[in-house]
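Thread title: Can someone regenerate the structure for this chain?

I was given the following input by a collaborator and told the matching structure tokens would be attached. They weren't. Posting the sequence so someone can regenerate them.
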Amino acid sequence: MNQNSNTRSVSDIVQARARKFFSKKTLHQRLPITQWLPKYNLESLEGDMVAGLTVGLTVIPQGIAYALVAGLTPNYGLYSAFMGCFVYMFLGSCKDITIGPTAIMSIMTHEYSVDKNPDYAILLCFLSGIIIFAAAVCNLGFLITFISKPVIAGFTSAAAISIASSQLKGLFGLSYQSESVIEAFSKLFENIGDTRWQDLTLGLCSIVVLLLMRKLKDLKITKVQPDDSTYVRIGRKMLFLISVGRNAIVVIVAGIIAFAAKSDTFTLTGDIEAGLPAFKAPPFSTWDNGTEIYFSEMVSNVGAGIIIIPLISILESIAIASAFAGGKTIDATQEMYALGMCNILGAFVQSIPVTGSFSRTAVNSTSGVKTPAGGIVTGLLVVLALAFLTPYFKYIPKATLSAVIICAVIFMVEYETVRPIWKARQLDQIPLWGTFLTCLFWKLEFGILVGVGINLAILLYGVARPKVNVSTVLRKDESGPHYVLVEPRSGLFFPSVDHIRGQVTKAGVGPAESSVMVVVDCKHFTGIDYTATKGMKSLCQDFERRHQPLVFTNVTPGVERGLCSLIDDIVIARSSDQIDAAYKSASSNAVAENLYSGDEAIRRVSRSEGDPESLGPLLEPMNSARPIIVPAHNP
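Best answer:
Regenerated them for you:
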């Protein structure tokens, strides 16, 4: 009978899960395209076309530049710029996000791509996708919450400075290798005498033009007004498109200048492999100087990058989704599904690790995108560029690409957050600057670990050393102390038990003078563990040896069960009247097994009284009948 009942319950659970999985709600949740596609119209098409073209003009020069940051040839940046657009259209839940290569992902790829071998970058992309997708399946998105905003700000700012410093050599027309910010500036000053003035002039001019064009979109002249004529509207939109498409315009103009000049005037990008990438499985082995490196050794060489890159990818994408959610709730799990598939399928077209791009997402949003379908236009534009324009990309000057990268990352330095963090909580400056300095002068991945470690240390210190308020409660006639009230401000668990025990003891021998009754207010205790119970038992024994009364009040049923499991005799008061009764009993040395005030004034609980489950309901807080409290000591 029991076996049949168990079989039926398991069967019911499986059927319920199956019905939920194959429901219409789950379909809309896990395949968001089914929500907006039936409502798609011409207005949406117009907005998506304009936004898609604008983002496409932005991602092409950025993709080429970010490939160089990753230490790879420019074509890999373009390979990374289209598959994410296509996949996110089906799985993405935020209309504004664009998935592709980013500055931070590129520098992290450079960190872990052994000897600039593209096979490592592609494998990293595939493994990152697998890990992100698996994390979504296991609902591990909550782990991201352990990385605080100050840590993210410190990491992002340090990464931006690292990326900008790595581009100085291209800006000055120099050629050297550097692995850190200090080394980048050291090598720059060592080789400053070899600066190519043509590259430096073109690079600085590109930076100035890019920054001016960036501000153009914020001017009133680009804002369409309701009473504008058709021609004025077109003119304003053209100025806006010029502003958001500034990277492509500057790169095209610089390429034309380089094409018209002598071949050795500027340092050029050089030949780029033409055509679309082959659709094939990611490399699970590679070659190094004639020696084949197998999958296990490749993974070993990549090391911590297998964890760090997916983590940063999730962080960037979810942070961007939250920023552009427009007040809506973000489904972090669905975003992880989408991002994981973007990387998995991207690896089949030789992509480097990708994530959401803040700058392109901002362009997408301000361009009036209506649905994720704008990604199709962006992806197709990149595909067309790969198919037909790659022979002309070799004329793009490296100084201009460096200018594009520098202008993209300088706005990632979150200097404006330092003041608000200081005002909100000064202690948060420690993880902020700890992360920033470690990332800047050591390694980016270690900076995140240091920041998270500092945050956890601060949290654990707060748990282990909670604030304890101690007050002396006077008699009603104010002729002397009634009792000493000790109020711990957080839970009673093993890290904090020694501290709380010490503070209660200190109150007992200090304000209570080893004779006045001490009352421990347990209203902030949500639970108790074995170590804490042992600590409280020792505390009760200390008071008993001094013949000093100790009373616990506002004890929840769960905490009461825990205390009663080890402590033979413990006094628990359920109201201020019961505390008064305890005081009178202690004063007259008439403490018995049960003391009554009314029906039940106070109860001395013993394990011999029976099942702890039968103990009373949630204890009432001490009410207004409590005598006046006079603060005595606040440790």
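Residues 9-39 form one domain.
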